[in-house]
Amino acid sequence: MATVNENSERDTAGKKVLFSGIQPSGIITIGNYVGAIKNWINLQLDYDSIFCIVNLHAITVKLEPAALRLNTLELLALYLACGIDPNLSTVFLQSHVSAHAELAWILNTVAYVGELNRMTQYKDKAKKHADNINMGLMDYPVLMASDILLYKTDLVPVGADQKQHLELARDLALRFNTRYSDTFVVPNAYIPKVGAKVMSLQDAKIKMSKSDENENAYISMTDSPDVIRRKFKRAVTDSDSSIRFLKEKPEISNLLSIYSAFGGVTVKEAEHEFEDIGYGEFKSRLADAVIAVLEPIQNKQKQLLSDKAYLNQVLKEGAQKANYRAQKMLSKVYRKVGFVQKS
């Protein structure tokens, strides 16, 4: 069980701060695992790590309240099942720390409509949710900047598609610092060399996404072994039967990248392993490698979900640790902008 330590900054002296989070909006794919959660496990050993479940972001699209609550606990259980340790890292729910929303309002005053309009993800989501183009969709990157800047974050593990949002966070930090004097740490991206962007199994030109209408395009973290084997068997390949990591072979390159991430080998080692093997056997062994990693995680997640008291305690203690740090930064920001301090 995690324990609350209000002097947590003292315990992590000398370590750089790392922040990341995932929305509890439904299916979590192996793309989320490879691009984010898998990296967090080792990073938490070397960094003052803060891992958030960003449920404020999740409601920018329509979700059933009951589904959101369930997804939130399932995602927390997945964090822990994958190896995020609340004794090493701060794990909490975004809505449990009000400073995230409060700082976002302040940052809105240094964010420009033009730069928010240009955000690629806003444009994409506005197309997909044309009946619900709300201000939350546009303001999403400002809230993300708030998430990051509250904790003096040095590094943000992001997928390649999130670099634009991180650049905005950097711009807002610099803009605020210029206007009000040095306040925020300007964060940098941490992008893993392999598997930073897992692509669709049906179209390697697009990212693997839980919102893909074709369920064969992604592997969910909760897919059964039979489903995983079926999806990999149906994964698109090219007519050339060689298993090589090449620009002109994006589908096989994507599968090799996934095998590397789950099999614990380099892409070059994977190429050598499958040098004289056909696509059928390669896909079968790829499925084996993914199943070998996912099954223990799935079993641990189910076990954790049966103990709601423990999960709630992790959230409570994580929120206390996060809130202690967030309020210090928010108070500093309030002083800088000229707000009268609350007595």
Features:
single chain; 343 residues; mainly alpha; Rossmann fold; Tyrosyl-Transfer RNA Synthetase; two-stranded parallel ribbon; 5 strands; 6% strand
Rounded to an integer in angstroms, the radius of gyration calculated over CA atoms is 21 Å
The CATH architecture term of the largest domain is 3-Layer(aba) Sandwich
CATH class of the largest domain: Alpha Beta
Order of helices and strands: HEHEHHEHHHHEHEHHHHH
The shape is globular
Biggest sheet descriptor: 3 strands, parallel
Widest sheet: strand ordering: 1-2-3
**Structural category:** mainly alpha
Q: Figure out the total of helices.
A: 14
The total beta strand count reads: 5
CATH fold label of the largest domain:
Rossmann fold
N→C terminal distance: 35 Å
Tally the structural domains: 2
Helix content: 40-55%
Mean pLDDT: 90
Instruction: Give the CATH H-level superfamily of the largest domain.
Output: HUPs
- Are there runs of 5+ residues with pLDDT below 50, and where? 1-10
Q: DSSP strand (E) fraction? A: 5-15%
